[in-house]
Amino acid sequence: MSSQAPMIEMRNVDKRFGSVIAISDISMKVHRGEVMCLLGDNGAGKSTLIKTLSGVHKPSNGELLVDGKPADYQSPSDALDAGIATVFQDLAMIPLMSITRNFFMGREPTVGWGPFKRVDWKYADRVAMEEMGKIGIDVRDPSQPVGTLSGGERQCVAIARAVYFGAKVLILDEPTSALGVKQASVVLRYIAKARADGLAVIFITHNVHHAYPVADAFTLLKRGSSLGTFRKDEVSREEVLNMMAGGAELESLDAELSEFQRNEQHDDEITEGSLPASAAHGPQSSGARLATGY
Ligand SMILES: Nc1ncnc2c1ncn2[C@@H]1O[C@H](COP(=O)(O)OP(=O)(O)OP(=O)(O)O)[C@@H](O)[C@H]1O
Ligand SMILES: [Mg+2]
Fold first, then answer.
1. Which residue has the higher pLDDT, 157 or 33?
2. Does the beta carbon of 45 sit less than 6 angstroms from any atom of ligand 1?
3. What CATH number belongs to 8-245?
4. Matching InterPro entries, A to Z (predicted)?
5. Which residue's alpha carbon is at the smallest distance from atom 24 of ligand 1?
6. Residue ranges of the alpha helices (H) in the chain?
């Protein structure tokens, strides 16, 4: 890790909504070329944390720093201008608009000037296709509506857009949660690429198989508070899984499932043992025996 200032840092940040304390006293740092995975149950405050980082919410208390300098954003576009790009859980894309339009949304390249100024769609189409191609997505027609892309491809448009416009920090709120194995791996590969390009990445997921391979560190949230940050070499995959789900709950689920399995096995043994005898009485009586036995 470098001795440079963290790319993004939170110091003792609180966010309250009226009487609800969504996050409390959060301190967290992410450096260049590092993936920080945010873990925590539903309602733990993960989305609130990243919305506070990306200018959607103003912190009720505490400080944000970007590249070592205090940041005080009034809006998400302020944060975006400072290089903090966020792909929200409720993906901000317009399904009926084309890939190119979604890619450039609000930042269309223009040609000409004065009254002759117009959007350069030819150039825009070419860039959108090239950028998608770089991450291995072959767009045949950039005028294709985004709504016709698969979930993974749509996530990739959002990420490619962020990287193209010079993001320094990439924040991803559950980008892989609705994806199949193959598509999730496209997104994960892209996260790894963003890290290799020197971006600081904050990645939220509930899936340990997605988190563990790409993360350098994990921060665990519980009911709005941080339970700490762990470097990858300090924790095993099982420990991360426990952190995600709450260890105690998993253990009791484990016990319940093995009890269930034992009962089933027992069931099978009885069925097998009783079959020859019951076969003599025909299938009906064997069914009756089982039904009354259990
Ligand atoms: N705008 C808001 N107004 C009031 N309460 C809010 C608001 N946003 C979030 N909260 C509350 O803050 C808490 C944390 O919510 P948040 O969405 O950050 O959780 P999360 O960790 O992202 O959960 P999930 O895994 O389900 O996405 C919840 O109790 C939620 O109800
Ligand atoms: Mg959330």
1. 33
2. yes
3. 3.40.50.300
4. AAA+_ATPase, ABC_carbohydrate_import_ATPase, ABC_transporter-like_ATP-bd, ABC_transporter-like_CS, P-loop_NTPase
5. 42
6. 46-53, 76-81, 99-104, 121-134, 151-164, 181-196, 208-214, 237-245, 247-281, 283-293
